[in-house]
Amino acid sequence: MTAAAQDIAIPQEDRMRADLYNYLGLMLARPADDMTLTMSAGLSGDDETELGRAIAALARVAKAVKPKAVESEFNALFIGLGRGELLPYASYYLTGFLNEKPLAQLRADMAARGITRAPNVYEPEDNIASLMEMMGGMIVGRFGGSPTALEAQKTFFNRHIAPWAGHFFSDLEAAKSSVLYASVGAVGKAFMEIEREGFRMSAD
Question: Residues 21-31: what's their mean pLDDT?
């Protein structure tokens, strides 16, 4: 995060939203290492909401798994021999093919918002991890130095995330290779529904 972003007061609710987006991005970008698993095991979701229960379940699983097993799980889900069990890209979910129109639309929106792909990232930008990180960054002002207005967040979410992310997280939760990532899928699915409803209500 830039110094300018850190100087800006972010409402606690938005900070929590950004943290969850960033956490999902971290978990989906690479296999969770020992530090990430320790952080995950310390998550608390003790309320009786669907998201709270999913977070509590994720914390329980994170306490029980080892990094080597998580790496094998991640590879089976997303890499595999040739391809993994899931293809976590907007283009694939929306068109059945990679590198299609949804990716071109995302790249145009990224350029308009001053968002660039990190030089060490080679995957298409419409992968789920990158989209989660983009939303987290927009909320706290990582791009351009000030938080993105709620209406612009809503536009980005509805255009690039809402049409497919819920389906992806459901697939992740149900995937035969999923253990830890089944819980990640449950958290993501619940959070996407909360965000969808929150943005819908913001129009009222």
Answer: 97
pLDDT of 5: 40
Classify the phi-psi angles of 98: left when phi > 0, otherwise alpha if psi is within -120 to 50, otherwise beta: beta
Q: Which residues contact 51 (CB under 8 A, 6 or more apart)?
A: 45, 187, 190, 191, 194
Helix axes 150-160, 101-113, angle to 10 degrees: 160
In the three-class reduction of DSSP (H, G, I as helix; E, B as strand; rest coil), residue 50 is classed as helix
pLDDT average, residue stretch 154-182: 98
Q: b/e map of 38-63 (b: 16 or more CB within 10 Å)?
A: eebeeeebeeeebbebbbbebbebbe
Distance of CA 148 to the CA centre of its chain: 17
3-class DSSP state of 119:
coil
Domain boundaries, the chain: 3-202
Amino acid letter, 162: A
CATH number of 3-202: 1.10.3480.10
Residue for token digits 């229960």?
53
Which is nearest to 159 in space by CA: 86, 104, 78? 104
Please give the C-alpha separations between residue 175 and each of 85, 171, 186, 202, in angstroms, as whole numbers. 7, 6, 12, 33
What confidence tens digit (pLDDT) does each residue in 105-115 have?
A: 999 999 999 99
Question: In Å, what is the CA distance from 6 to each residue of 10, 44, 111?
Answer: 9, 25, 23
Give residues with Cβ within 8 angstroms of 97, minimum separation 6: 91
Backbone angles phi, psi at 173, to 5 degrees: -65, -35
